[in-house]
Amino acid sequence: MSIKQYEAFVKTAELGSLTRAAEALGSTQSRISHVLSAMEEEYGFRLMQRSRSGVVLTEAGTMLLPKMEAVLRQNRELETLIADIRGADAGTVRLGAFTSVAVHWLPGMIEAFQAAHPRVELKMFNGDYYDVEQWLRDGTVDMAFITLPAPEGTRVIPLAEDELLAILPKGHPLAAKPQISAACLGREPFISLLQSSDHDIHRALDKAGIIPNIRYTTKDDYAIIAMVEQGLGISIVPELLIRGRSQNVEVRPLEPRATRTIALALAEGVSSPAVEAFAQTAVAWLERTH
Hints:
The chain folds into 3 domains: about 5-85, Arc Repressor Mutant, subunit A (Orthogonal Bundle); about 90-160 and about 260-290, D-Maltodextrin-Binding Protein, domain 2 (3-Layer(aba) Sandwich), CATH 3.40.190; about 160-260, D-Maltodextrin-Binding Protein, domain 2, CATH 3.40.190. Helix content is about 45%, strand content about 25%. It is built from 12 helices and 12 strands. A hairpin with a 2-residue loop joins strand 1 and strand 2.
């Protein structure tokens, strides 16, 4: 049986007339009559008694009516859901982000996205660089904020350049310099993220030929700032991370200048209209606010 046949039966039962049912469905009386006769032939029993005054359901037709109405209702719900998904108004977006993006960008991006797509569910996963890339590889997330270069097998949308800055304890002798050379960093106790999570900083040091004197390592970005505040060493952090947290440390640009490129990476083969819509929202939000 097709949805069209169920519609013909239900509408005829509702209106009590083949003619009125045909008008309501944009069809003809003969076509509706033919559809109902074909249903009865297939089922092997009568559904309606026809007369000059209209149609009346048989006992079998009365039993089938609520079931067919339920099928039509479920079909409408299915079509609505399909349209919502196509229009990015339904579904789930699983999103990975590292700390600085999660703190400074995501709240605004999420607000803008949910204002336009209130029925899409967002699931956020927060971790370090290593965590985020692993989530992309194993399918935990549909998309993630990363820094370039991107993991293999992902589609990348570059978003912004973020400068890497030296941070020093208040009153540190190097704070007298307007810029901090990479050579100076090699002579000071250095506080670092775990090697697996510190791609950008170690690339900058490697480019300058500097091997840092790593005294402490941590997985927590903000723990680095706290340790520098306590005079335990110096470090390099992205500008986005230190934003709003620089009052208790000295912040200086590096010489030569170093940056990281923040991007969105979308896992191959899992994109959906909702995922694409969030990526578009993220790009538009940055263009509007930066």
